[in-house]
């Protein structure tokens, strides 16, 4: 029986291994992590991450061919294939701070694998890493190998949160990169055989290591670039009276462009896009390609601009100050169907409003109060000026309340900001909400989920990203939007 071990029980490692176990009943899969609380949660009825369909898959396999353990070394030692799916955050200090990927966890995983291994292993890069990481990992493994043969493969994961189980069950493609030597090709074939149980052969792409590593960074950069492109257009739409949804629809009808990832928003969030682009920027700079680095940096800069622009709209519309005013924040997760708040635009928008002394009442159906408070209390890391940590507002704690439904969040509020496109925000009783708010009542829709015309009929002053402006907003003196 093939034994697979995955180091790292996070958003990628957990669901991916659960799917492998589900599809390959004759493969033994163990997910290991040093974080005991996380492993305990994977072994409990309340999994540590919220992902539609995940519970069923885990329940079907756990205790049969899927297990979760903190006994990292023992499981690594007797596995044939080891996936490494550990964090690779952006470095916040030292060389490359603000851009380069921090490979500390990866390096210690590699050293541990070399230490405990007694038989040949295939080591698979699952977490997104800078191009040529495999070379460094290979050196660590071979210099400590005691005669054991290690083959490194790159097998980047493309799943998106909220649709992880579907993405894993029906991937557009699976990438496997490896060395062009006979041993490298044998390792590729072994991993391909695992995926081939449920993924059609023509969707399993094999290539060299560097192409596979770079493809992942390139895919994320190009997806984020589409969002920044449409968000840049949204500013121009507001200035001219065009409607960004119509523009995106027209543009997306061109079959060369396609319609997906063209939804204007308050900005993209999530653990991958910004981190991977900054890593790409750093790699370009290291390879003496400043023009290429500058090009990709703009994608992140437009994203920051979009969040600032949103805050400016809110404050300027509400008579140039939100000081002491209750503002309801609907949604805090970086997108719907997830409880994840990493790099969520809601953090920057809340910080901006808190800086103007607003009283925030925050509601998200999946994010805990603890998480929201932690996110707002942590100083913001400024990737463009990594030496400066922008401190959080000292009174932030007192200015924030976290509530458990949209109606209490909005009661008595002067304004509402929609930060996440949760389905329930489309169907709220907005008449009831309007009646309970201070007047004039404002809605700032950062996700284009509300029906602007209907809300204007109720009496709201509505701003929706990239849509023709409400006369109220249009007549205000120009600020930097
Ligand atoms: C992304 C990639 O899609 C996935 O392939 C990769 O493996 C990890 O990074 P994820 O971060 O889970 O996945 O979410 P995604 O659905 O890509 O959305 C990222 C952000 O962009 C979210 O904040 C989302 O709201 C925003 N977004 C997305 C837009 O603002 N407009 C769009 O049209 C699409």
UniProtKB/TrEMBL annotation:
Q: In which pathway does it act?
A: Nucleotide-sugar biosynthesis; UDP-alpha-D-glucuronate biosynthesis; UDP-alpha-D-glucuronate from UDP-alpha-D-glucose: step 1/1
InterPro entries, per this entry? 6-PGluconate_DH-like_C_sf, NAD(P)-bd_dom_sf, UDP-Glc/GDP-Man, UDP-Glc/GDP-Man_DH_C, UDP-Glc/GDP-Man_DH_C_sf, UDP-Glc/GDP-Man_DH_dimer, UDP-Glc/GDP-Man_DH_N, UDPglc_DH_euk
Ranges for domain UDP-glucose/GDP-mannose dehydrogenase C-terminal come to 328-452
Q: Which family is this protein grouped under?
A: Belongs to the UDP-glucose/GDP-mannose dehydrogenase family.
EC main class here is: oxidoreductase
The EC number(s) this enzyme carries:
1.1.1.22
What does the entry list under GO cellular component?
Answer: nucleus
Task: Specify whether Metal-binding is a keyword of the entry.
Answer: no
Q: Which reaction does it catalyse?
A: UDP-alpha-D-glucose + 2 NAD(+) + H2O = UDP-alpha-D-glucuronate + 2 NADH + 3 H(+)
Please give the Gene Ontology molecular function terms for this protein. Answer: NAD binding; UDP-glucose 6-dehydrogenase activity
Going by the UniProt record, its keywords in alphabetical order are: NAD, Oxidoreductase
Xref: SMART domains: UDPG_MGDP_dh_C
Sequence positions that bind NAD(+): 8-13, 33, 38, 86-90, 127-128, 161, 272-275, 342
For the biological process aspect of GO, one term held by this record is: UDP-glucuronate biosynthetic process
Q: What is the protein name for this chain?
A: UDP-glucose 6-dehydrogenase
In the UniProt entry, which residues are flagged as the active site? 272
- The answer to keyword DNA damage applying to this record is no
């Amino acid at each position: 029986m093939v034994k697979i071990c995955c180091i790292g029980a996070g958003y990628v490692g957990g669901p991916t291994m659960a799917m492998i176990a589900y599809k390959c009943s004759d493969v033994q899969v163990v997910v290991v992590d040093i974080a005991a609380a996380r492993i305990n949660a994977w072994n409990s009825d309340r999994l540590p991450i919220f992902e539609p369909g995940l519970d069923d898959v885990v329940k079907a396999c756990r205790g049969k061919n899927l297990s979760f353990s903190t006994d990292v070394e023992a499981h690594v030692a007797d596995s044939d294939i080891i996936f490494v799916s550990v964090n690779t955050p952006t470095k916040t200090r030292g060389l490359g701070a603000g851009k380069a990927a921090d490979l500390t966890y990866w390096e210690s995983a590699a050293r541990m694998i070399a230490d405990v291994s007694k038989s040949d292993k295939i080591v698979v890069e699952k977490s997104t890493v800078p191009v040529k990481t495999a070379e460094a990992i290979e050196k660590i493994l071979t210099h400590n190998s005691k005669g054991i043969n290690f083959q490194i493969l790159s097998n980047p994961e493309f799943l998106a949160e909220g649709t992880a189980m579907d993405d894993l069950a029906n991937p557009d493609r699976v990438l496997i990169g490896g060395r062009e030597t006979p041993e490298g090709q044998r390792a590729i074939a072994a991993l391909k055989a695992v995926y081939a149980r449920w993924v059609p052969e023509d969707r399993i792409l094999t290539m060299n290591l560097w192409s596979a590593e770079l493809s992942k960074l390139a895919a994320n950069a190009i997806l984020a670039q589409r969002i920044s492109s449409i968000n840049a257009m949204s500013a121009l739409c507001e200035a001219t009276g065009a409607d960004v949804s119509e523009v995106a629809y027209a543009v997306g009808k061109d079959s060369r462009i396609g319609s997906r990832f063209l939804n204007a928003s308050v900005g993209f969030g999530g653990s991958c896009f910004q981190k991977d682009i900054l890593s790409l920027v750093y790699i370009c700079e290291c390879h003496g390609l400043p023009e290429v680095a500058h090009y990709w940096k703009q994608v992140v800069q437009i994203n920051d601009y979009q969040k600032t622009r949103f805050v400016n709209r809110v404050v300027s519309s509400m008579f140039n100050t939100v000081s002491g005013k209750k503002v309801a924040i609907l949604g805090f997760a970086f997108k719907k169907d997830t409880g994840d708040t990493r790099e969520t635009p809601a953090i920057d928008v809340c910080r901006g409003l808190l800086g103007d002394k607003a009283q925030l009442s925050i509601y998200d159906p999946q994010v805990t109060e603890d998480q929201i408070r932690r996110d707002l209390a942590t100083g913001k890391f400024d990737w463009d000026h990594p030496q400066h940590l922008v401190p959080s507002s000292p009174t932030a704690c007192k200015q924030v309340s976290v509530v458990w439904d949209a109606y209490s969040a909005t009661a008595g509020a002067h304004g509402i900001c929609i930060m996440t496109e949760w389905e329930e925000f489309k169907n709220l009783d907005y008449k009831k909400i309007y009646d309970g708010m201070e007047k004039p009542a404002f809605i700032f829709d950062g996700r284009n989920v509300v029906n602007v015309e209907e809300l204007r009929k109720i009496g709201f002053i509505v701003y929706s990203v990239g849509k023709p402006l409400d006369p109220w907003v249009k007549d205000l003196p120009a600020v930097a939007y």
